[in-house]
Write a structure and sequence with these properties.
homodimer; alpha/beta; 9 helices
């Protein structure tokens, strides 16, 4: 596999992050996810926690917004994160990048293989409750809210529409099984020359 | 592969029909596409040409519409076609069904593996011009119009939105190559237990 960057967008609770990790292990290539947050924090000067919050929300706290006089903070962080992702794409021959709107940031690169992972709501609620170790009063409501944040963030910062098949090389329902999904994506990405 | 029905929706010019045929050969299972038109014609009493026209358009000629006093003709044909697809799903252990909103008609069947095939517009225009043997003054415009018919028909007769990843087990950009797509879909469908 030459110079292949696989970007993954995923619905909350779909297991997309786990699939991304399995995929990177299968292909023997680096995996970027939380590393992007810490690299963006270093680049932007904000704390990791703040970058993490801003990376999933279109708007951030009023206090920070009032403090800044130029671009809104969320836009500054998005730009810093985009630069981090571009740097990764230049420095790595191949890798898996989860989140960060990497599919959109790297849209000009032909070597990019863009993947979207989803699953039925009930399946995602089950996974979050039983496997992610998250606590919530109403898991269904919690998953829906987390998803809304992702959709709003993605649709605000990109010109794509979240979850539209045409924006991806491959989309897959992770009900197929996380290991199976990683196998299928690896097989498809290898054939994308 | 037990009792597996693979439904395929495809953008015009994406090569989805060819992929469906390759897939059925790979899996050694029957393939339904144009056969659905002739079976629907028999069931509804309309001619094959008329059914074909109605199967890709929400509205049909005024003459037929005036003639009928009950359901609009297009709705009658959709209902007849849906029954044909349901009959196929009951009679065949496994098969590939292309078009006919089969993914929606068979939405209650857990054994259904739903696929959407797309490709960038320029790639589809090239395929229609060079491979399909179709003639048009403006191929780009022709492909866009054919697509609009499919989208309008699908969105009218189903409660889904054409091309939305969440409605499918797998969506794939056929730029990967038709043979490759058939391989990937076959591999995914086999793992869908």
């Amino acid at each position: 596999m030459n110079n292949r960057i696989i970007t993954i967008n995923r619905e909350y609770g779909s297991g997309g992050r786990i699939i991304g990790k399995l995929l990177s292990e299968k292909l023997g290539i680096p995996y970027y996810d939380k590393e992007i947050i810490s690299l963006t924090a270093k680049k932007s000067g904000f704390t990791e926690d703040f970058v993490k919050e801003a990376s999933e929300k279109k708007t951030v706290s009023l206090l920070y917004s009032l403090y800044m006089t130029s671009l809104p903070v969320s836009d500054q962080i998005f730009l810093a994160q985009s630069q981090v992702i571009k740097d990764i794409s230049e420095n790595e021959e191949s890798c898996v990048i989860v989140g960060g709107c990497a599919d959109y940031v790297l849209r000009e690169l032909n070597c990019c293989f863009k993947v979207f992972i989803h699953a039925p709501l009930e399946e995602r609620v089950r996974r979050v409750r039983e496997e992610y170790g998250e606590t919530a009063d109403d898991y269904r409501n919690y998953v829906i809210k987390q998803d809304k944040r992702r959709v709003t963030y993605y649709n605000y910062f990109t010109q794509n529409k979240w979850g539209h098949a045409n924006d991806y090389n491959l989309t897959i329902d992770s009900s197929l099984g996380l290991e199976n999904c990683a196998e299928i994506i690896a097989e498809a990405a290898k054939r994308n020359n």
